[in-house]
Protein: 6-phosphofructokinase 2
Amino acid sequence: MIFTLTMNPCLDRYIYIDELKPDDTIRAKKLVDYPAGKGIDVSRVIKELGGVSVAVSLLGGHNGRRIEEMLDEEGVIYSSVRIGHETRMNIILEEKTQYRMSMPGEKVKKEKLQKVFEILHSLIRKKDTIVISGSLPKGVDPNYYTGLIFSLKQWGATVFFDADGENLKSGLDAEPYCIKPNTHELSRLLNKEVDEKNKFEIVKYAKETLEKYKLNEILVSMGKYGSVYVNWDEAYYSYPVELKVKSAVGAGDSFLAGYVLKYEEDKLEAFRLANAAGNAAVLTPGTELCKKKDVLSLLPKIKIEKL
Structure:
């Protein structure tokens, strides 16, 4: 079984307008809400691609209930840790350009953080897969991820970890199975500039990271320049596909979902599916994720090279 964990989810509210004018009444043409948070997005893509997962997250208030309703509508299975305050909301004004206002979240009580451990312990079985993605709530020490990943491994789970900055560094101390940084996140982890166009340099740094943190695998997304997959024995590069980009939001989560869905069957085909899903995500507007029909149409176009 696949589980995802989102510790800091949010509700993305897109407001579409013609033009933003100061000191004038702006009439919205359309308002669209999306459930957001990296782990939630991974579960949504797994569902879209025909798989099954359980999305575990901290949710509260009206926004939390709205996220649950939307997950119900999409057929995504979820298990919520209810918190006593409102789940944060991001406001995105969409005209010719995009204005994104990210609202701060509230601090989560210690007993709710402990509840996450308890729920996962009751759900996780040996050989299950869990994807831990995104940031932590305000005020939570990054070492929370260290303890969580260590516990999940003790319970027999395979842990995929997708985070940034100090959260990523702390989680790596517990030696997860696989991480999926983009080139910017890899640069911050290594504290050195990484050329996002240079697949050989990225593979070199990926191997160093693999060895340093005793990972089994590492996936590095390179944006419009493709991606690489590295394990202890092999390295592969996937070429980019030329597409008209509507929005790159959610491409990394779609990529990871595609890989996790198939990695136990065939890692190379999982890497192919990951790239098809990641590329398909840029064909959808806003924070919409990949569509299965686009993924299937792109699969034959994914060119993979062994390095």
About this structure: The chain has two domains: 1-176, 180-307.
